[in-house]
Write a structure and sequence with these properties.
This protein is about 25% helix and about 25% strand. The protein has 15 helices and 27 strands. A hairpin with a 5-residue loop joins strand 6 and strand 7 (about 140-145).
């Protein structure tokens, strides 16, 4: 992810002949040293600059510090225990279990810069957040009630009144950026990995925990990008995204062979981590089958990981120690593609599969399981590589044997096609794609409208398909209700889903109808889901809870039922594998959960 971000920044800077800034948030980052190291290793170009929040705060004059836009109302109070001067750049306060409750930052002159408290609700116990910045005289200058608000203030200071584009690559930062709405800033979030915890299972499964905050707020970004078209399509079909989502692949900047040399047709290579996701055991099992008909075929595996001992045992048990060789980590492993005839990718899933591009660039024919995401977007089956049904070692072996049996002419033709395919991922090509996507996002961005939404459930009934909802939506604006969806978010899980609703409008009151299909809830286990109305008005998205007016008993059968919480909102209770009678009274159930 970091390499992709650095490549992109350098490409933007080179093509546009402009300075591109990388914003960093770590208090331990020295931006000058880091930039020098990246320049020396040629990871960035000279027009790429690195800025750091804490480095700039430490040198910021007092008159600028007091201009920072804190979100806590003045006067600032409850800044916590003032730490003693330690002479260090940072000090901490922890509880008896080692949980950090307070982090104090200092300037070089020893003056207190900031107090970051994580126990504001009850001193000595984790809970709540309060970040306070001080001037050099020790006076509290600005205060924020969340980490996100603090970062937003610094970004405001960096951007000022300029028109800017911000691209977020990381999950933690991205989870805080959906709330950063500025008319002069276009915010983009890049998805580097699958949007489901198990992308090989149901399209309505659980989200990865680290990405829940991003994926449940996609409407709030000006642009979201995926690395593959397949993933973008899946997200649109499931209604996780409905617009403002584009496919922009990672770029390939590595070496590309100019002359394709002959190589032994039975020589294979595999590069990747030896972990469960990569499913290297399937490649080993496949080579054991290949060995029977092609005893001189080999597969050299480069990489390390937690599964290394098990894989070594498997090789021994299958008696293929001369056929499959584990080499461990090798910094120059990707150079092996230039001498191999074919490569193997047997993963359970990928974000895109950069290793496939590296194989193509070397004229090494990739043989890959057709998994989400990447292989089918990169490989044209039978032209520049081969796609194999996922999870089938026997078919993988048959495909490897087929490649070994190809004539020199056929192999050379495929190698030539493989090298040609890499040109589609060249920096100048992907940079143009970024240009088009960002220009469209900026051109279609609208100023955030301020309006209120009230959503009230007027009717709910169940059929064999699912739960039918009729909802009254009232806006305090004359602007049209452009779009409505009913969404649900796991209260203590990463379950999430949405369905489009139909809209009938009379004056400023809108009758919204939606069906919550039972099959949408079968892959998310047990738990409680809070239900929301997602609306779009003149390009501005809002999410509100749905009031459960008149919902006196639970409605639904099978895996899900809706009920009214003690706070009067609509939620869903999941019952996986359970057949329920429609509208059954819930008086015999556990106490109704609260919001």
């Amino acid at each position: 992810m970091t390499s992709a971000a650095l490549q992109r920044a350098s490409a933007f800077a080179e093509v546009d002949k402009r300075v591109v800034e990388i914003l960093t948030l770590s208090p331990r980052m020295n931006p000058k040293r880091r930039r020098s190291a990246l320049l020396a290793s040629k990871k960035i170009g000279r027009r790429v600059h690195i800025r750091n929040l804490w480095s700039e705060l430490r040198t910021m004059p007092d008159k600028q510090i007091i201009r920072l836009r804190g979100t806590t109302k003045q006067p600032i109070t409850t800044v916590g225990e003032r730490p003693s001067i330690t002479g260090a750049a940072e000090s901490t306060r922890s509880d008896d279990n080692g949980n950090i409750l307070q982090i104090d930052q200092y300037r070089r002159d020893g003056s207190l810069l900031a107090i970051d408290r994580l126990d504001t609700r009850r001193r000595g116990h984790l809970g709540g957040r309060q970040i306070t910045v001080f001037d050099r005289k020790g006076k509290a200058a600005a205060q924020w009630g969340s980490e996100a608000d603090f970062y937003h203030s610094w970004i405001d200071w960096v951007v000022g009144d300029r028109t800017a584009t911000i691209i977020s690559d990381s999950s933690p930062v991205g989870g805080m950026m959906h709330g950063y709405r500025r008319d002069n800033v276009t915010v983009t979030q890049v998805l580097h990995n699958p949007h489901l915890r198990d992308p090989t299972g149901s399209p309505y499964g659980l989200l990865p925990p680290a990405k829940k905050e991003i994926l449940t707020h996609l409407d709030r970004y000006d642009l979201v990008t995926t690395l593959t078209e397949e993933q973008r399509t899946d997200m649109l079909e499931s209604c996780m995204a409905v617009d403002k989502i584009q496919t922009v692949s990672n770029m390939y900047e590595g070496p590309v062979v100019e002359r394709i040399e002959a190589r032994p047709p039975g020589q294979g290579v595999m590069v990747g981590r030896l972990v469960r996701q990569k499913r290297v055991d399937h490649a080993i099992e496949a080579m054991a089958l290949v060995h029977e008909a092609h005893p001189t075929a080999t597969l050299d595996i480069y990489g390390d990981g937690s599964h290394s001992p098990q894989l070594a045992s498997l090789i021994s048990d299958l008696g293929v120690g001369d056929t499959v060789r584990l080499h461990g980590y090798d910094a120059d492993a990707r150079a092996r593609f230039q001498h191999a005839s074919f490569s193997v990718l047997s993963s359970r899933f990928e974000g895109q599969g950069l290793v496939l591009l590296e194989s193509l660039a070397a004229g090494c024919i990739p043989i890959a399981y057709d998994v989400p995401y990447g292989p089918s977007d990169i490989i044209t089956h039978g032209v520049n590589g081969f796609l194999v049904p996922a999870g089938d070692p026997a078919e993988l072996a048959a495909t490897i044997a087929h490649v070994i049996s190809l004539s020199p002419r056929e192999l050379n033709s495929m190698r030539t096609a493989a090298v040609s395919r890499v040109a589609d991922f060249a920096p100048e090509v992907i940079t143009r794609r970024w240009r088009d996507a960002l220009c469209e996002a900026t051109a279609t961005k609208t100023a955030d409208r301020k309006f209120r939404v009230r959503a009230t459930l007027r009717d709910a009934h169940a059929t064999g398909q699912g739960i039918h909802l009729a909802i009254e939506v009232v806006l305090d604006t004359s602007d049209a209700l452009d779009r409505a969806l009913v969404s649900w978010v796991g209260r203590k899980t990463t379950a999430y889903g949405r369905v489009l609703a139909t809209i009938d409008t009379e004056a400023q009151t809108h009758r919204v109808r939606a069906l919550l299909p039972y099959h949408r809830f079968t892959a998310v286990g047990r738990g409680l889901l809070d239900v929301f109305m997602d609306v779009s008005v003149a390009g501005t998205s809002r999410r509100v809870r749905i009031t459960a007016a008149g919902l006196e008993q639970a409605v639904g059968s099978g895996p899900a039922e809706i009920y009214a919480t003690q706070h009067g909102n609509v939620s869903i209770r999941l019952h996986p594998g359970r057949d329920r009678t429609v509208g059954q009274d819930t008086a015999d159930r556990d106490t109704t959960p609260t919001d």
